[in-house]
Specification:
Pfam families: Cytidylate_kin (PF02224). Its main location: cytoplasm. It catalyses: dCMP + ATP = dCDP + ADP; CMP + ATP = CDP + ADP. By secondary structure, the protein is α/β, with parallel strands linked by helices. The protein has helices at about 15-25, 35-50, 55-60, 90-100, 105-120, 130-135, 150-160, 170-185, 205-220, and strands at about 5-10, 30-35, 65-70, 75-80, 80-85, 125, 140-145, 195-200. The N and C termini lie close together (about 5 Å). The structure holds cytidine-5'-monophosphate (C5P).
Amino acid sequence: MKRLNIAIDGPAGAGKSTVAKLTAQKLGYTYIDTGAMYRAVAWQALKKGVEHDNRAIAELACNLDLKLTNIDNKTNVTVAGHDITEAIRTPEVSRLVPKVAQVGELREVMLKLQQDMAKPGGVVMDGRDIGTRVLPHADIKVFLTASIAERARRRWQELTAKGYSISLAELEAEIACRDKEDCEREIAPLVAAPDAINIDTTNLSIDATVASILELHREKQ
Ligand code: C5P
């Protein structure tokens, strides 16, 4: 079997990480969560109180001792050996990350790191600019979408299960705001690559979504 690279992009809550993880698992590929990388920088910027300082954010990225490890279908994230897997998923970090992700120098650092990670082949990488910028020659490109109501419902379930108290309406407004920031930024905005396959997951199960990506993979063999 040829080890291909699969790019999965889409807005928040479209199911990218779940689908990407399962696809990688089925194929024996490496899953790379690029959102976690941007979240790690946002988390560190908050911790150091430099979240409004673009130069400091770029510097953080250059010196980031970041490790992503996939264990039991979960991506563990450490910075300098410190486990921040849960800390990067707080609503506070989610609100900040699209602002941090607009810093050009930070994106350059991430671009290089992510391209290096994909060099051996056999990766499933999810994010916002994978098919358009990070892996423009990816063998398979998928753009996952879902209605905003459904995406908010999924995030609400996730967050309430973790004990956060947030209303569905609040979450929907936050997701809409994050999408707008990601779609309208100057560098590497969220947009489907012209050659990406669009999959709307509003009424599609995770298994069915994974199955359609595996079918695309079979066709490319
Ligand atoms: O995928 P996730 O929701 O964890 O991503 C968090 C944020 O990181 C996105 O809203 C976006 O601002 C940023 N991001 C990005 N480019 C990527 C992945 C994530 O700008 N490739």
